[in-house]
């Protein structure tokens, strides 16, 4: 079974937390789209952005009833991209359910964080500029997994580009004691300055203007420690009064993405559908 509860946290704000104790999935409420099927992942248009990075555009295949679009950053430690289960699979499902989606194959930083951040900015600019032809959405959110979650949380905390954020087992901190060291080294370099490590520790960059968040992770993740990354970020958001949903699963490890093999696949996808299709 699973337990869903809301607990007051930090000056009267509310952090919604879902802890799953077993493998049972929760059914969606009436009118919510099914979250299990994976539609055609080849139904996209490839666009080359000014920086040279590639943006895969999945326009809404049905009438847009949400007014939302999502820019997606696959993970890969800032040195490769998990383009399928953390990118195209998610985007195809969103598109089939009325949400335009954009998968960004961002460039690798090799010690220069401005490189993927430039690509991210250009992806958002493209999404905003093409709203009328792709779905007439008014809100554009960001989604990222693992190191892609770090890039997504950077967009959410360092810019005002995103209206909401969706993070799966994210890298958030650049503190060398608790970060994913490979992501740290590829983003900032092995001899990064302490100033850069603080700047890109995104749990330290949250403000009241940071957009609402949906975060899902496994507590047995031994690649990206969940407590000092995703959980710490959720608590930082709650301290600032930012609406935040945190899903904590006891098993699953790292990198499950859209894979149905993840024990709690149906459960987290149902919660994602609620976040996308029923939240304002």
Would you give an account of this structure?
The chain is built from eight helices and ten strands. It is α/β, with parallel strands linked by helices and 280 residues long. Strands 1-2-10-9-8-7-5-6-4-3 form a ten-stranded mixed β-sheet, with helices on both faces. Strand 9 (213-218), helix 7 and strand 10 (244-249) form a beta-alpha-beta unit. The two termini are 28 Å apart.
State the helical fraction: 25-40%
Could you give a short account of the major beta sheet?
Answer: 10 strands, mixed
Q: Please, how many helices?
A: 8
**Measured distance between first and last alpha carbons:** 28 Å
Computed over alpha carbons, the radius of gyration is: 17 Å
Q: Which strand order does the major sheet show? A: 1-2-10-9-8-7-5-6-4-3
Could you tell me the strand content as a percent range? Answer: 15-25%
Give average pLDDT, whole number: 88
Please provide the ordered H/E string of secondary-structure elements.
EEEEEHEHHEHEHHEHEH
Which structural class do the helices and strands define?
alpha/beta
Low-confidence runs: 1-14, 22-31
- Based on Cα principal axes, name the global outline: globular
Total E-strand runs:
10
